[in-house]
């Protein structure tokens, strides 16, 4: 079992303090199993998590997906995004660099 990421909510609290997330489209690069992605999915318009590891994405897609219909997970890497440029309001690289 993996350790919880941001168990005290410090990353999320910092993000909320410095960014207006309401109504925003957010991209998280290196989303892993989607744990952090789900933490802020309820605060945004749409959130897309990308990760190169299909096994992590399968966990993300199957874990509480119905609770967060505005969250989507795609297999990709940050160097080659499968989206047109400048379509996201905020890009997050939490623990992925």
Describe the structure concisely.
This protein has helices at 10-18, 35-41, 54-62, and strands at 25-29, 46-51, 71-75, 90-92.
Overall description:
The chain is an alpha/beta fold and 97 residues long. It has a domain at 22-80 and 87-92: Rossmann fold (3-Layer(aba) Sandwich). The chain is 26% helix and 20% strand. It is built from three helices and four strands. The chain has helices at 10-18, 35-41, 54-62; strands spanning 25-29, 46-51, 71-75, 90-92. Strands 3-2-1-4 form a four-stranded parallel β-sheet, covered by helices on one side. Helix 3 (54-62) links the parallel strand 2 (46-51) and strand 3. The model has no long low-confidence stretch (mean pLDDT 85).
What top-tier CATH class of the domain at 22-80 and 87-92 fits best? Answer: Alpha Beta
Rounded to the nearest angstrom, the radius of gyration is: 12 Å
Structural class assignment: alpha/beta
Number of strands: 4
Give the CATH H-level superfamily of the domain at 22-80 and 87-92. Answer: Vaccinia Virus protein VP39
Largest sheet, in brief, is: 4 strands, parallel
- CATH architecture field of the domain at 22-80 and 87-92: 3-Layer(aba) Sandwich
Could you estimate the helical fraction of the residues in percent?
A: 25-40%
Could you give the order of strands across the largest sheet?
3-2-1-4
Strand percentage lies at: 15-25%
Unreliable residue stretches? none
Number of helices: 3
Termini separation (Å)?
Answer: 22 Å
| General shape | globular
